[in-house]
Write a structure and sequence with these properties.
Layout lengths: L1 H15 L7 H4 L9 H14 L13 E4 L13 H16 L7 H7 L11 H10 L6 H14 L15 H12 L3 E9 H5 L2 H5 L6 E13 L2 E12 L5 H9 L6 E4 L5 H7 L7 E6 L14 H5 L1 H4 L2 E4 H4 L7
Parallel strand pairs: 1-2, 1-5, 2-3, 5-6, 6-7
Antiparallel strand pairs: 3-4
Amino acid sequence: MRVFLLSISCIFLLACTPSKKQNPQHTNPLPSWNNTHSKELILSFVKRVTEPSSEAFVPIENRIAVFDNDGTLWNEKPLYIPIEYEINYIKESAQSNPALLDNELYKGLAEGNLAILQKYSTFDLINQLFAAHNNQDETEYKQSVYRFLSKNHHPQHNRPFKEMIYQPMVELVHYLQQHNFEVYIVTGGEITFVRTISKEIYNIPVENVIGSSVKLNYISDEQGVRLIRTGSIQSANDKHVKPCNIELHIGKKPIFAAGNSDGDYEMMEYTLSGDTPSMAILLHHDDAKREYSYMHGTEKAVEDADIKGWHVISMKNDFNQIFPN
């Protein structure tokens, strides 16, 4: 009987012992990355700042990482996904509100004239597209966005827009979280838009999303309590505004930053400006076969990478896959 009980105990202990195979990243961190110098630099940095015996050790409460979204965590070509949404929204809304097409930009987009986008600065474009939702209930906006991202497909890759994420970059987000980094999205995109799917597709909670925003009106009447969107910009979260909003919303300087364009220049520069060990990476779109190859809008960030100290990540050479299987 004693031998039998001992055998049962051993079996129970073996069954309850965690297996390393339960966490693939334990033996192969960042599996969608090739074993290049870029991957080595990232793993080395994380090890240095999280190993208690390291001179570069950073306490958990100061492990802040910030990621741009469009072109860094998910696809942004041939059009930004938020613009794809706005075009769809304007077309649908114009059916019941034809006056919407009195606006030159809205009319052009509804008719498929994408060249009209070039007539507007980034700020003017944000301002006008956000204004299309003036007087819309915030809850209705969230539902509209989520429905679009779930049901509408990318025109070339034929998968729902919310699945147009870069698998290697999402793995990086999760890897940092596993090492007690608090990961934030800092995007030029509309804050509520990104919050509708941030937890689902990135494991980043809504409170960790910082983005461009509009002013909201608080309404309490016989119909109930609700928040209504206005056409007024609260914040256009791009370039030099990103570090300001990081301080406003987080109150701490990041030690890791990931971007892909000149719009992320100041965010990466800010991240590397402190005394704490830090790292910044710039995702370079150079894979025409599996995604797209382009430089427009990222020329300065790439040109200054060596001087500024951020590392350029090649999608072609550093990623062994782009999108999730």
